[in-house]
Amino acid sequence: MALVVGRARTDELLSSGLRQRRDGTVQAFPGQRRLRWVRPILLLSSRRVLAGDYLRRGVAEFVGTFALIFVGAGAVIYGDLVGTALANGLVIAVMVTSVGMISGGFFNPAITIAFALTRRISVTLAAWYLLVQLGAAALAALLLKWVIPAPIQTPTHLGAPGLLSSASNGHVSAGQGVAIEAVLTFFLVWVVFATVVDARNNFKQVAGLAIGLTITLDVLMGFGLTGAAVNPARAFGPQLVANHWSHFWVWYVGPIAGGAIAALLYEGLYLTPAGPKPLEQDAGDSAPGTAALD
Question: Which three-class secondary structure string do you get for the chain?
């Protein structure tokens, strides 16, 4: 229930999140009114299950995944490691920040499956997300095939990931590739759960930046070894359109396994039961962000 208090100056109202009524009294609203724009993301922080609203959430996932493949895979043609890492990281940071409040900003089947395993998304919506993500990846790769000249796209297989294999630098086996992709995806899903799911985190507004930077770091480390897809959709689109299926299963088994381990571990250690309070949080304070769920 709203609490009515005395009159206050305009600047005090703005700084405290209060609203002045027509009769001159001031109404103090609960935290969810001031955090309305982050409410959809904060829904993931409780045990509520993300479900329903398939069309709008599906379109958001489609656009985000399409952007990732078009920009992230397209950047591979330039042969610049830093540029590729930034392209993949920045497009995810922008898209998560833009539409994360609508769909959760997954854009990655490994993240979708991780959320399904921890019961933070309904099975039906998760299946819909998987279909949308893979479809968006295929369409984005088709567009890349059309706009990129053949002499450029052929050597890179439209940005499809591949295992290191050269006479001078050695070889990465399929097993090693699975391990690399699993570890890199573990980092990604761990950061997603820490910044988006955990209600104690004070920095949800910049979750997209943290997630994007994690992908940038993953690509910087793993691109030369496996392509650092850390995302089955990122691999599927270029593989399908370029018809390049060499060791294709590496980029499905690795990311899904790594993401599942990260999600279940974070859920078990910090979210079930309620994890330890942040160091700066007083014993009497509620966890940051929980007011938006009341």
Answer: CCEEECCCCHHHHHHHCEEECCCCCEEECCHHHHCHHHHHHHHHHCCCCECCCHHHHHHHHHHHHHHHHHHHHHHHHHCCHHHHHHHHHHHHHHHHHHHHHHHCCCCCHHHHHHHHHCCCECHHHHHHHHHHHHHHHHHHHHHHHHHCCHHHHHHHHHHCCCCCEECCCEECCHHHHHHHHHHHHHHHHHHHHHHHHCCCCCCHHHHHHHHHHHHHHHHHHHHHHHCCCCCHHHHHHHHHHHCCCCCCCHHHHHHHHHHHHHHHHHHHHHHCCCCCCCCCCCCCCCCCCHHHHC
Cα angle 89, 287, 61 (rounded to 5 degrees) comes to 35
**Whole-number average pLDDT of the chain:** 84
What tens digit of pLDDT does each residue of 28-55 get? 444 444 444 344 444 454 556 788 889 9
Q: How many whole angstroms separate alpha carbon 175 and alpha carbon 162?
A: 13
- pTM exceeds 0.90 for this model: no
- Residues constituting the chain: 294
What are the residues whose beta carbons fall under 8 Å from the beta carbon of 140, sequence distance 6 or more? 65, 66, 67, 68, 69, 70, 73, 237
**How far apart are alpha carbons 268 and 99 in whole angstroms?**
28
In the chain, what are the domains? 50-271 (1.20.1080.10)
